[in-house]
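Ticket #4471: structure export looks truncated?
Reporter: QA, pipeline team
Priority: medium

Steps to reproduce: submit the single chain below to the structure queue and open the exported record.
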Amino acid sequence: MTEIKKVAVIGSGVMGSGIAAQVANAGIDVILLDIVPEGSQNRNVVAEGAIAKLLKTKPAPLMHKNNASLIQSGNLEDDLAKLSDCDWIIEVVIERLDIKQALYQKLQDHRKQGSIVSSNTSTLPLQMLTEGQSKEFKQDFMITHFFNPPRYMRLLEIVVGKDTDSAQEKRVREFVDIKMGKSIVDCNDTPGFIANRIGTYWLHAAVSKAVKQGIGVEEADAVLSRPAGVPKTGVFGLVDLVGVDLMPYLFKSFDEALPEDDPFKAIGDMPSIVSTMIDDGYIGRKGKGGFYRLNNDGGEKVKEVIDLQSGSYSKARHPKVKAAIAAKKGGLRALLTHDSNEGRYAWDVLAGTLSYAAALVPEIADNIELVDRAMKLGYNWKKGPFELIDELGTDWFIEKLEAKQLPVPKILSMADGRKFYREKNGLLQYLSVEGRHEDVQRQAGVLLLEDVKRKSKRLFGNSQASVWDLGDGVACFEFHSKMNSLNPLIMSALAKANKVLPRQNFKGMVIYNEGSNFSVGANILMLLVAAKLRLGFAMRWILRQGQFTFRDMKYGKFPVVAAPSGLALGGGCEVILHCNAVEAHAEAYIGLVEVGVGIVPGWGGCKELLLRGQTSGRIKKGPMPAIMNAFETIAMAKVSTSAQEARDLLFLNETDGIVMNRDRVLSSAKERVLKMAQNYIPAEPATFKLPGETAIAALSMGVEGFAKTGVATPHDVTIAHELMKVLSGNGVEMKDVDINDELDEDYILKLERDALVKLSATKESKARISHMLSTGKPLRN
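Actual output as written to the record:
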């Protein structure tokens, strides 16, 4: 099978340029083509402007600014010949059938034989797109529907026709899975496919019913967010995020494509307030606001919310909605049965959406698992529609629908009291459209810890961490504390793993979990309590426990590989720094952020970053460049915005792996362990030669400059000086070191402990910790 080595994207709008960026993130050359504006001197101005915008957009479409060099601009009049060496052409033009079909005719004269053509359409069926095209074209054609933003949304819906060549389909599947990091969901050739078909119904129902029932925006979002397993933005916040101006377009396309008896049409016309908002420029976050807006009141940003009846804005109230509060205790049933206007609204929207989803199987997808996965990946639902029905209970849901004289979908009746999902013989199964439970299938090369847990019991652990057997002599160490924050119980379990697993003939260990974030760092509440009670001895014990546990892991008898995804901050970063190798998800955000809570890294983070600066080819040789690099990274609390950027910051080494697909991270880490274990020789502890007072004097000049200009606060300066002492080797109660002195790791670790304990005793650091715990944001004092 021919590998895809070059891609063309036609259409450089937000979606097209975003797809091009993700191709570039995969390290693949991509051509971005668009129209030539009438009268323009620069014929590539549209595509060039899109590439320039990629470098400025936040959140960044590019994982590294250098990836932009892989994107070549062009236009549809002069550069179609460049398609001749492209293996895959992705069409991302306006959703008009005539324009798309005319483009496909042009492509036939320029694309090379055997190249793949796909459309990113979200509404037009494949059968209509390929009507009148040649048999050869139909064999090479499919729909690949990305979700916006393409870098961050993992879902790719794929639709193939009866003529689509299976080899071409396989080429695309492997590329988007492994290279682009997408989770593929197979859809039937129906309007809106899966996620948008259900998601648009949900949004339309939520907005329309809120207007009709007199439910406020904040009240609607309170019940249709976390209580329903939906992102905290809620429905109206989500519409603001994707764009209010997208609503009429989606409504029109579904209104034209769906049959008259479809429940979508029964909801009614789009509320007039949506059109009014768009006319007034309130198109969401990309404009001057939407259902929510930020108003500068006296120089201070004030969040305001629209009244759905009058269209006027007022200050957000953040109301405590009783139905949402009831859901915290009683779950989804309590929300949908709450005797309040908000409870009845939640029932109308959610019950309608869940019923709609159930009625669409097998029309839109062959099974319920595809539907659930599409909604979780495409709309960030915590649970899919059928998982939510399981939470309610199939019998309970049927009873409620019948009581309200609402239709019961066939597949729901088929469940007949059974759950849609069950576990049997260590496997997850779903209820098929034939009425029997079938195994959920994973792609080859996908290894999920949730599947390992179904098949086995943990080797050992406690309430905060567990150790699992991945097979082939590889163990997995999992954090499962709140937000995966690190604490003495986790350190105790890790210390046990370091000692016990080699004795049990394990070849190595992976540190991994399937939480949203790898670890947000140490439990700072523990730190605050120790500081307020003046328990310096307890703090030193906790620091020593972590330092020596990480040290023993780094220099242990078998290889340990970190497999982070999401945030890996503070202590989470220090875990990674002490592992023998890393297989990081591409979306790993790594950093030492301790200065934000008024301290310095205390579990070996300073020592490890200093060591990497001395050995990395990215930093000039000599002690001062390494010290300055570590000081800048830690003092500025730098966090990588991707695994690629983490290499620049030395949180990852050049030899560490980056895995694009989240579902393949654990498998890659396991393979890395097995490869390393074949001839594993533990590393030797490092030594340092540091310049002491000379380094402090050099660093102090810069800090004083920041303080004079107001960039650094007084306590920033205090923290900076303690950090200087650690990195220079001239710490608290230490004599000035000489550049010729050879310092061991334990020396640097003691400097870390001294600095952290001293800083945590200050009232300013206590205030920073308290502020972070109460608000989740750093305090500048």
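Status: closed, not a bug. The export was complete when the record was re-opened. Leaving a note from the reviewer for reference: The domain at 195-366 is CATH 1.10.1040 (N-(1-d-carboxylethyl)-l-norvaline Dehydrogenase; domain 2).
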